[in-house]
Amino acid sequence: MLRLVALLGCWLLIIWASQAQVPAALPLRCLTVPAPGAYAPLRQALAGVRVVMLGEQTHQDGATFEAKIHLVRYLHDSLGFTTLAFEGDMYALDKARREMAAGRPVRPVLLRSVYEGIWSGTADFDSLAAYLDTHRRLQLAGFDCQLSGEYTQEQLLPELRRFVAQDTRRRWTAADFYPGQELLAELSKGGGAPRHPADTMRLARWLAQCRASVAYVAARQPAQAGRARFWQQWLRSSGAYWRGEMREARGQREPVQNLRDRLMADNLLYLGRQPEHPKIIVWAASYHLANHHSRIDLDDSVTARYIRREVLADSEDVQKVNAHTLMGGAVPMGELVKRQLGSASYALGFVAGGGTYGRLEEPKGLRPVPAPVAGSIEQAFGQLGCAAGFVDLRQAPAGATFYASPLGYVPLRAPWAEVFDGFYYTQVMRPTSSMAPVAVAAPAALGRKLLGQVRDAKTGEGIGFASVGLPGTSLGTVSSADGKFALFVPAGQRADSVRVSCLGYASARVPVRGAALAVQLAPQPHLLATVLVTAPPQPEVIVQRAHERILTNYPQQANSMQLYTRSRNWRNDSLRTTRETAMDFYDQEGYRRGSWEHAEKQRFLQLREQRQSGPEPPEPPLYWLLWSHDPVLTERNPLEPGPSRQYRFTLNGQTEYDGHLVYEVGFVCERPSVYTTPYGYPASESYQGTVYITTDTYAVVKYEAFTGRAPYAIDKSKALRRLGLAAPTVRRVTIHDVYQYEQLRGTYYLRYARHDATQVYTDAATNARQQTQRDCIELLATSFTQDKPLVLQTTGLHVDPHVPYHPEFWDSYQVLVPATVQDK
User: Fold this and answer.
1) Helix/strand/coil (H, E, C) string of 652-671?
2) What is the spatial order of strands in the sheet that 139-144 belongs to?
């Protein structure tokens, strides 16, 4: 019996080996990149091809990026390819093409159009930017239905409105484009959610009206036909993607990414029909470029073992996550393109023999490339000793089946000639790395600290978050929750007095005598709207005027700041981690409303010092999280005309701030969504607060908002273990945001911001509280200048938090004083 079993085992092994090993007739070629003639095998394989699709196993493959850039150069220089089309925002990359044609510098154009931090903004991508800068005949394009570019957020709707305004049959107004703002918000901030039927009908009507106007312009102005074709395609693609998101919100989910792949294929085929794009290079993930995912053996035991070992860390999910759930039912873009173009398209997958992938700046996320499995294409290339290699699978024996890992490093068994047209092999993979700012030496500054406390003149209680500064300068701070402050005065700076202001109190100018200052502020009467002598404007009008005055009240030119940030984390009321950062900040454009919606991390930054206490590893400063919700800089809040229609406003009265009378306007969002509130999905259930606006200049001097987010059920054991919980739980999140602005010579700027988020975990069965987590992030602008701003050249996209620590630096830098009472 044992002998029979052994014979059966040998027979099965022979059968497996004959089916899984790479056929000897497979035309493997080593490439001597970048030597002249290295790509001769590709030239032959690409004869008659109009669309070459270059994949990547993940978006964190530095060696693959390098190989693809070499291929882009070869395809353009030697084979005459005219267009580089990214798996990226369709409008943003079309705008980038036109910006490059106008002679704009390429690097900032790419940052505003190509996925930041994935491709643009990485050191690996920088050589492509340099090449494009000197080869501007290679045009850019995008075919993704997802909205990810800064150009889209800022310029798409204004440009579309100008185009449809040529339709003389109707008069398009700003209000007509509010549904367009809603569409962009929903497609760029997290997808669909159940919507009010009236909103759905209004958005569908807007899409139809835009298409009708575009068609009208195209029919009567032949010179506009090209732009009309683009707008019709964008409207069709975006509308279909939005409708798909709505279906998914109702539980009608398509397999994997089929909707997106279908729309990307349609957009790419549209590009191929345009005369300006005769030969296209596609840059995308290999998953989207594959043909016939159905030919991959999703039940293979080697694949299953790899997924179980490498992909899953949670035993309860082993039965739920497998090759079928990852790829089953997929109809990728490549398959749809192949149906239309046939042999005129060529999909090149990428594989690697070893090394590491991930982001160099995120050591925890670095992963080794798995060792090649027996009978794999990687093993075959490794046996040849190739540093780089290529195989034209169109020349492979019919039905040849073997292992390869072109889709996320998962070893898969398939007749690969039916999935890809060729493979590019790299012997050693390496991670991507960012173009991170270098921390500068931070010498201790000379000067002195003025200590003090701000109290209510009537009650004697400390006044929190009062503004304390030197008159006539931007040097200042805010008091802690119990009124204490420490103001650093640089050497040579005159400091005869300090000016202290707080909403609801008369401002005070206090002479400096000695090291400690005792400041008392007199409370001012809060005048209710019903007792004001002069009838004020309606609250909706006050908010509208505040929006209209943003361009005159806030800086519209280059400026720089010195910033201090403090991030604290509590668990069950116990402070665990405190992280403080000092940095220089440069804004080359000023307060462009909406400019922070998608490009908050692209601002120019120089990290000076960072210190931390607590068990968590160092992290980059989260300064951008505060500004990305700043109501003056962003558009998804009650100050914006479109979302404001979904708010109820109340004039609570008047009070005083820094010598100015201010209106106190309360607001409540009646339809919270990703469009009307600052936070994406899971959607806000409630959003309300107060905005304080000066009565003379209509400047926002303070904005305070409270957000309640939809409950989120957590039942996966892995997530529960990470939280230290045993039973299924429900997470409820509340957020308290505060923004305070100050004036310097007629210009307002952000002095202080605070983002305070509390997560409460309750037992799903009993509703008993299990755990509370709180994260509070604060930002203080310690100085501000427009006259001679500090010009910086590098962005804060991936700031390296591992900077030198000098204890003496913090003795002379402006910081927030810790409160002796619990912050509210």
Assistant:
1) EEEEEECCEEEEEEEEEECC
2) 28-30, 388-392, 422-426, 345-352, 51-54, 280-283, 83-89, 139-144
C-beta of residue 388 within 8 angstroms of C-beta of residue 31: yes
Average pLDDT of the chain? 85
Arithmetic mean of pLDDT, 429-458: 76
Class level of CATH domain 12-81+279-426: alpha beta
| Arithmetic mean of pLDDT, 768-772 | 88
| Contact between 762 and 723 (Cβ < 8 Å) | no
Helices (H) and strands (E) in the chain, counts: 24, 31
Per-residue pLDDT tens for 182-230? Answer: 888 777 765 555 556 667 788 899 999 999 999 999 999 999 999 999 9
Q: What is the pLDDT of residues 523-576, one digit of tens each?
A: 887 666 554 556 789 999 999 999 999 989 998 888 888 889 999 999 888 898
- Degrees, nearest 5: CA angle 691-697-700: 25
Dihedral of CA 672/674/679/683: which sign? positive
Strand duo 647-657 + 684-694: pairing: unpaired
How far is 248 from 236, CA to CA, in rounded Å? 18
Closest among 422, 456, 534, 612 to 31, alpha carbons compared: 422
* Side chain identity at residue 631, one-letter code: P
Kind plus residue range of the DSSP H or E element containing 574:
strand 574-587
**Element spanning 89, H or E:** strand 83-89
DSSP letter string, 39-102: THHHHHHTTT-SEEEE--SSTT-HHHHHHHHHHHHHHHHTT---EEEEEEEHHHHHHHHHHHHT
Which phi-psi region, left, alpha or beta, contains residue 317 (left: φ > 0; alpha: ψ -120 to 50)? alpha
pLDDT digits (tens, 9 = 90+) for 481-502: 899 998 888 877 777 888 999 9
- 717: which 2 tokens? 């054991």
Q: Which helix (H) or strand (E) holds 579?
A: strand 574-587
Phi, psi of 480 (to 5 degrees): -75, 180
CA angle 593, 594, 595 (to 5 degrees): 95
Quick one: which of 377, 428, 430, 366 has its CA closest to 402? Answer: 377
Distance CA 469, CA 446 (A): 18
Q: Are 352 and 428 in contact (CB under 8 A)?
A: yes
Q: What is the pLDDT of residue 15?
A: 37
Report how far residue 379's alpha carbon sits from residue 613's, in angstroms, rounded to the nearest whole number.
47
pLDDT at 321 over 50: yes
Q: Is the pLDDT of residue 2 over 50?
A: no
Task: Read off the tokens for 623.
Answer: 């300064």
Would you place residue 6 in the very low, low, confident or very high pLDDT band (cuts 50, 70, 90)? Answer: very low
**Helix intervals (H) in 350-488:** 377-384
Instruction: Report CA Rg, the chain.
Output: 30
SS3 of residue 183 by DSSP: helix
- Domain residue spans of the chain: 12-81+279-426, 150-257, 447-524, 558-652+662-803
CA distance 283 to 67: 12
Share of the chain above pLDDT 70, in %: 86
Candidates 558, 592, 553, 586; CA nearest to 745 is: 553
What's the 3-state SS for 468-479?
EECCCCCCEEEC
Give the pLDDT of residue 820.
55
**Residue 643 has which token pair?**
């979302």
Which architecture characterizes domain 447-524 according to CATH? Sandwich (2.60)
Q: Tell me the mean pLDDT in the region 447-460.
A: 89
SS (H, E, C) 714-764: ECCHHHHHHHCCCCCEEEEEEEEEEEEEEEECCEEEEEEEEEEEEEEEEEC
Does residue 314 register a pLDDT over 50?
A: no
* Residue with more model confidence, 278 or 24: 278
Q: Residue 82 has what DSSP assignment? A: -
Contact 796, 623 (CB under 8 A): yes
Mention every residue, 6+ apart, whose C-beta is less than 8 A from residue 245.
Answer: 186, 187, 191, 192
